[in-house]
Amino acid sequence: MNVINESGILGISTRLQRLSEQLRKDGFQIYKTNGIDFEPKWFPVIYTLHFKPVLSVVELATEIGYTHPSTISLLKELEKEKLIRSKKDKQDERKRLILLTEKGKKLLQQMQPVWQTMVVALTELTNTSNNIMKAIEEVEAQLNHKSFMDRAKK
Amino acid sequence: MNVINESGILGISTRLQRLSEQLRKDGFQIYKTNGIDFEPKWFPVIYTLHFKPVLSVVELATEIGYTHPSTISLLKELEKEKLIRSKKDKQDERKRLILLTEKGKKLLQQMQPVWQTMVVALTELTNTSNNIMKAIEEVEAQLNHKSFMDRAKK
DNA sequence: TTAATATATGTAGCTAACTACGTATACTTG
DNA sequence: CAAGTATACGTAGTTAGCTACATATATTAA
After folding, report:
1. Is residue A2 a part of any domain in this protein?
2. What is the CATH number of the domain that holds B34?
3. A47-74 tens-digit pLDDT
4. Interface test with B, best of A4, A5, A148 (most B CBs within 10 A)
5. How does pLDDT run across B81-122, given as a tens digit for each residue?
6. In this structure, is residue A108 part of a structural domain?
7. b/e string for B31-56 if b means 16 or more Cβ within 10 A?
8. Which domain holds residue B34?
9. Chain A residue at shortest CA distance from B24
10. Structural domain includes residue A3
11. Where are the beta strands (DSSP E) in B16-134?
12. Overall domain count for chain A
């Protein structure tokens, strides 16, 4: 058995998490140096609302692929920043509809060039012989087909 | 600008984190169904102590690539489980030396076949056209050479 | 039309890493 | 050898997701 492989692949979970943290931290700094007060974790919410301007909490959660409690906590932060607001759905009183504020829409416009820069930088960074975005997608597809758990059951 | 790409790559941090969580959760279950009371996050510590049986806290932290506070909290848990123990370094009174207990050594032996199974399963899972372990290594190398931050500065 | 079930939202508390900071011991240098 | 610096360890508090549970409204079925 190959020691390096063993310790490498069994530590994959930690490796993924730490790479995630590093990119997020840099992401935050990049917004900051561009004079934008924005956190990378808010991106999926704001970006989704750009294309689907009115969504309920759960619809939004589904759209960004988070659980609803995680989404609620993001929404709380974004509401505090006055980047989004919400209103009751008249048809269904259980629902809270989420919308960008004017401030949110304006910020979104300001962020466009920064996003463009980040996309270029990230594309350059991940344009290696094994593309990490594709690799993630492939592993996710593999997991969808058969979980790690099931694969280890023999 | 490609919308799918943009939302994809700018959300890379979250994707990495969630894949990490999923693998860790399954990892825990796999130990469990094999009758082993062990958490995936403990792996680097136990595995390292297998090859380097006596290490100080900071040496161990460096070895596994964690910060020392993170390492200390893992060590606390492992001490509670009686899988490791510690003793003062006589040469340097600041240091606390970490060792596997007999229970720890025994568990390590019991885990070998499970690790083997997991390595096989993970290798199968990640053996896609873009290999995720290699991709992580390549991105880490790229980052080492020039950070995401620096790449976005133009 | 009430009872049972389903859906939408919210709250509380967990996890696994981190940074910032504090204290104790060791080392170095004037 | 005393003062300043470096190293080792520890604690406190943060983060960004999560699960489990609670409550309110809506829908369905007897």
Report:
1. no
2. 1.10.10.10
3. 999 999 999 999 999 999 999 999 999 9
4. A148
5. 999 999 999 999 999 999 999 999 999 999 999 999 999 998
6. yes
7. beebeeebebbbbbbbbbbbeeeebb
8. 3-152
9. A13
10. no
11. 55-56, 84-88, 96-100
12. 1
